[in-house]
């Protein structure tokens, strides 16, 4: 009888670890041995997760990976939530890796499209964050993961601090399925402020020569908020937040939503909305939310990741933020995405293109930017069973089985940068799918998930529209002088306004002339620092005083 | 932080640029001699405002200005990780990347410009269009070209800044159609040659023969392509780009976006600077943009060194 081994992956892991004994001290890889060590721990054809998300990068390990000898290590299948650094794609040019599954490639979106076209890499699928995390436990289980932490202790426990983000999720997918977990740390200490990942999940640690790369991605300078943004923000506050009693929410990163954050303690306060809207958030620690927090608007905030400069402020406000025993923020991208998908009343964001049916996309021709997390939050999760006032408010039928909906709101100016129409006949995504041979067009948010679209012209309550034709008419009514907007029929628009499917500013008590920058609770970054009592410490590039 | 040198093309010319660049140059005599030997014209002639009415003079002028600007920067230790030249600017980029010699470039550009001038003497031109993306314009172009003399997309300078080329009367009709469709701005350019479209295929073929006779060297600095928007790292690929470019659209937006994605955060536009620097400022708000000016080379060098430590 042939005996079956049930420990093949475990045995292979042991074999590789034994083979690097001479290059490591216990679990610590000497920096100068990193390339030689990786060359043994990673084998041809391995599935490898290289930690890179839109803020934090395992940059030292990315560079080390690039130095591997492609004659020894090749055909790697990379799994990366975000392709951000040039090195992330250089490994394909060098012949070390050949296939990639990813969620977001914004900072490398042209190059990845070119490399796909030139046959230098193969793309598995383009995901949302949650799908990619999910597949790490199903059919993209890694052989090796390369991750980043702030600090390690001598036992191998890790401190990931405010930027914990997706590190524990990636580690878990390898640690409990006989994958190898390799961590770069900024420093090694005797005692950690707190343990975010226990040592039993970790196989190897290397102290990097430089701290991991970290970008401030969620900082919007109020100086760049225009009166058009403010008008749209006013319309949204009255026409969506107030009307539907939106209490729990996520905001995108654009200036439209930054304007809303800065109007809460001023405009919304004057409407008596404090405590009635926008109390519980799934959000990165946006600096533009500081005035609302300081004015007592915000009850709680759960974060996907940290934000450079917000560390001290967050640590001083534990009633609002999730913090560890050490006092600093604990973020978790996977859990925050789940919260943003299932536990909030509303997702609101912006986009580059909306077609006549309300489908939206940030994809432009010749670029493969992927999705990130917006589609996770920007859709109605039909598995939801708990109710809230806003959710129930979306019911439009008298069916006894009718259920509520998440509010999915798009706020856009009808012309991007004053030049390019946002409302279009057909999304560029359709052409990109053809060019890049994708199975489906890369739509960011599907029209049938969108409940509201807000422009400087007004609000379209498209969840109320009856049938596709009426939906199109509602969108056209707020699409300004774009080609879509010019298909609007004045009589139909009037009827839609009467039925509350479309609202113009005067219909919801918004005066265009009041949309002034003086309404902003903070007009620049310096004001935000002042609101924070000096606790917010913006990165140098935002300090222009 | 990586640095790219950008070399401007036709439209950027300004009188007296060469005289001020040559004033700062230790090899001035030698370079003028070389140029004058090939062209049989004096430097002052191609540097004057009257001289710049001629396409030939303009193109040679831009080549020399580009090479001299880069030479002065390099001499002060300001180095480039990438070079990219817009249209004729690509020849200066190829010299700086050491694929062709200065002398070879002067002959090539002289030849190229003469052929261009002769190919279409009248009734042709170019127009800049602001506010439409490439995808959107192509729909209108297809429709227009099914009914009129073809107009070609010849430059993609930014996502919403395009240039078309063809017969002037046909361009005028297209502009009228685009204005009806709500385009933000259109402008007929002061260029009489339908560059960067298939009407220039014969010029490409002639340049190809000339380039194939040269011994091209491997680039010492990677070169961003006009034709493909790719990064080119071999002599053959760059040689091909130089002859193909005149009959293919300039993918400037792709070429510069690619080097930005590859880590460029400092763009320096060679003299006469302004046009490409403005495009880079709009496309890459996070990057540092410098305008080369031989009279302020010391300040530029200091700024560049400071950016290295940011």
- The average pLDDT score of chain B comes to 93
Specify the structural class of chain A: alpha/beta
Please provide the ordered H/E string of secondary-structure elements of chain B: EHHHHEHHEHEEHEHEEHHEHEH
Q: Which topology of the largest domain in chain B does CATH recognise? A: Malonyl-Coenzyme A Acyl Carrier Protein, domain 2
Mean pLDDT of chain A: 95
CATH architecture assignment of the largest domain in chain B: 3-Layer(aba) Sandwich
Secondary structure tally: strands of chain A = 25
| Shape, per Cα inertia axes of chain A | globular
Number of extended strands of chain B: 10
Number of domains of chain B: 2
Q: What does the oligomeric state look like here? A: heterodimer
Please state how the strands of the largest beta sheet of chain B are arranged side by side: 8-7-2-1-9-10
What this model shows, in words?
Chain B: It catalyses: holo-[ACP] + malonyl-CoA = malonyl-[ACP] + CoA. Chain B: This is Malonyl CoA-acyl carrier protein transacylase. Chain B: Keywords: Acyltransferase, Transferase. The complex is a heterodimer of chains A (545) and B (310). By secondary structure, chain A is of the alpha/beta class. Helices cover 29% and strands 18% of the residues of chain A. Chain A is built from 18 helices and 25 strands. In chain A, strands 1, 2, 3, 5, 6, 7, 8, 9, 10 and 11 form a ten-stranded mixed β-sheet that branches. Chain A has an eight-stranded mixed β-sheet with strand order 15-14-13-16-19-23-24-25, sandwiched between helices. Chain A has a three-stranded mixed β-sheet with strand order 18-17-22, with no helix packed on it. In chain A, a hairpin with a 4-residue loop joins strand 17 and strand 18. The radius of gyration of chain A is 25 Å and the shape is globular. In chain A, 55% of the residues are buried. Chain B is of the alpha/beta class and 310 residues long. Chain B has two domains: 2-120 and 198-308, Malonyl-Coenzyme A Acyl Carrier Protein, domain 2; 124-188, Malonyl-CoA ACP transacylase, ACP-binding (Alpha-Beta Plaits, 2-Layer Sandwich), CATH 3.30.70.250. Chain B contains 13 helices and ten strands. In chain B, strands 8-7-2-1-9-10 form a six-stranded mixed β-sheet, sandwiched between helices. Chain B has a four-stranded antiparallel β-sheet with strand order 4-5-3-6. In chain B, helix 2 packs parallel to helix 6 (102-119), helix 4 packs parallel to helix 5 and helix 4 packs antiparallel against helix 6 (102-119). The longest helix of chain B has 21 residues, at 55-75. The model of chain B has no long low-confidence stretch (mean pLDDT 93). Chains A and B meet through helix 5 and strand 21 of A and helix 7 and helix 11 of B.
